[in-house]
């Protein structure tokens, strides 16, 4: 979920509540708050906690709320995870430590330390394009044996790795795509769904695609996947979440700007997004 800001750069909590309700009404089963798409690196701890509370209050009983509490600072992640639990979230998402470039053992110990300090369900998040380090299937499988590790958001783009995780992990361990364009392939190797950016715009169609696949209607799932490819692609013509926030603003949600070091879309980027939204009938 993107984080709305006022024009002066402050978090717009009222808009966050509105957006949370909109996403749930349009197909999202759960919301990740203060993740990459929520511009977590530029949110303070206090802002994150207020966002957790705001979204929990807005969608309680209608969707799960997953707090992004990961960090490359293990102690900091432990503290934020504990505080998130007090906000009433349903689970947490923990990203592989970025910048530090830890070994696989370091990744395991980092996660195991945080997990030992919470009873909340945990979704791991592997995104080597941002963290530089890929969490191997073997490390994921070690972590999947811990009692409250229930899922992974896999954005490695490596289908073989995802298939291996699905093959060897406990049956109730869920594998989610971390890339919209990989959703259908990940479903084909046993994945459960997607932690989506494009669902901000196409939530109902994303839900139809996933439901169709799980119902055995692979032809409909493929048709929807191919139809949505232009949207999947245009959501990454500039750093995430600039395109999706721009798209939502074009659709009238008025979610404000992004925070530095991210910058606003260029006129040509905005026009490209406009063309895709119009072509798909969303605008």
TrEMBL record:
<dbReference type="InterPro" id="IPR005263">
    <property type="entry name" value="DapA"/>
</dbReference>
<dbReference type="InterPro" id="IPR020624">
    <property type="entry name" value="Schiff_base-form_aldolases_CS"/>
</dbReference>
<feature type="active site" description="Schiff-base intermediate with substrate">
    <location>
        <position position="153"/>
    </location>
</feature>
<feature type="binding site">
    <location>
        <position position="195"/>
    </location>
    <ligand>
        <name>pyruvate</name>
    </ligand>
</feature>
<dbReference type="GO" id="GO:0019877">
    <property type="term" value="P:diaminopimelate biosynthetic process"/>
</dbReference>
<dbReference type="InterPro" id="IPR002220">
    <property type="entry name" value="DapA-like"/>
</dbReference>
<keyword id="KW-0704">Schiff base</keyword>
<comment type="function">
    <text>Catalyzes the condensation of (S)-aspartate-beta-semialdehyde [(S)-ASA] and pyruvate to 4-hydroxy-tetrahydrodipicolinate (HTPA).</text>
</comment>
<comment type="subunit">
    <text>Homotetramer; dimer of dimers.</text>
</comment>
<dbReference type="Pfam" id="PF00701">
    <property type="entry name" value="DHDPS"/>
</dbReference>
<feature type="active site" description="Proton donor/acceptor">
    <location>
        <position position="125"/>
    </location>
</feature>
<feature type="binding site">
    <location>
        <position position="37"/>
    </location>
    <ligand>
        <name>pyruvate</name>
    </ligand>
</feature>
<feature type="site" description="Part of a proton relay during catalysis">
    <location>
        <position position="36"/>
    </location>
</feature>
<dbReference type="GO" id="GO:0009089">
    <property type="term" value="P:lysine biosynthetic process via diaminopimelate"/>
</dbReference>
<comment type="similarity">
    <text>Belongs to the DapA family.</text>
</comment>
<protein>
    <recommendedName>
        <fullName>4-hydroxy-tetrahydrodipicolinate synthase</fullName>
        <ecNumber>4.3.3.7</ecNumber>
    </recommendedName>
</protein>
<keyword id="KW-0456">Lyase</keyword>
<comment type="pathway">
    <text>Amino-acid biosynthesis; L-lysine biosynthesis via DAP pathway; (S)-tetrahydrodipicolinate from L-aspartate: step 3/4.</text>
</comment>
<dbReference type="GO" id="GO:0008840">
    <property type="term" value="F:4-hydroxy-tetrahydrodipicolinate synthase activity"/>
</dbReference>
<keyword id="KW-0963">Cytoplasm</keyword>
<dbReference type="GO" id="GO:0005829">
    <property type="term" value="C:cytosol"/>
</dbReference>
<feature type="site" description="Part of a proton relay during catalysis">
    <location>
        <position position="99"/>
    </location>
</feature>
<dbReference type="InterPro" id="IPR013785">
    <property type="entry name" value="Aldolase_TIM"/>
</dbReference>
<keyword id="KW-0028">Amino-acid biosynthesis</keyword>
<keyword id="KW-0457">Lysine biosynthesis</keyword>
<dbReference type="InterPro" id="IPR020625">
    <property type="entry name" value="Schiff_base-form_aldolases_AS"/>
</dbReference>
<keyword id="KW-0220">Diaminopimelate biosynthesis</keyword>
């Amino acid at each position: 979920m993107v984080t709305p800001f006022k024009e002066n750069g402050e978090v717009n909590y009222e808009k966050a509540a509105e957006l949370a309700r909109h996403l749930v009404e349009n197909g999202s089963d759960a919301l990740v708050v203060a993740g990459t798409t929520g511009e977590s690196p530029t949110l303070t701890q206090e802002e994150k906690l207020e966002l957790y509370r705001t979204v929990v209050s807005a969608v309680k009983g209608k969707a799960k709320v997953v707090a992004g509490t990961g960090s490359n600072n293990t102690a900091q992640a432990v503290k934020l995870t504990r505080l998130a639990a007090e906000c009433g979230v349903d689970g947490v998402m923990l990203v592989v430590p970025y910048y530090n470039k830890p070994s696989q053992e370091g990744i395991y110990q980092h996660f195991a330390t945080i997990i030992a300090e919470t009873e909340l369900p945990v979704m791991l998040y592997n995104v080597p394009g941002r963290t530089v380090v890929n969490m191997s299937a073997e490390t994921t499988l070690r972590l999947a044996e811990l009692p409250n590790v229930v899922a992974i958001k896999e954005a490695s783009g490596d289908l073989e790795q995802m298939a291996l995780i699905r093959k060897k992990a406990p049956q109730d361990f869920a594998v989610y795509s971390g890339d919209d364009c990989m959703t259908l392939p990940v479903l084909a190797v046993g994945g459960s769904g997607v932690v989506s950016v494009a669902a901000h715009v196409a939530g109902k169609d994303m839900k139809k695609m996933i439901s169709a696949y799980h119902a055995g209607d692979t032809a409909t799932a493929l048709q929807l996947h191919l139809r949505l490819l232009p949207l999947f692609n245009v959501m990454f013509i500039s750093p995430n979440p600039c395109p999706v926030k721009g798209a939502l603003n074009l659709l009238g949600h008025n979610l404000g700007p992004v925070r530095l070091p991210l910058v606003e879309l260029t006129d040509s980027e905005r026009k490209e997004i406009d063309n895709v939204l119009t072509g798909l009938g969303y605008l």
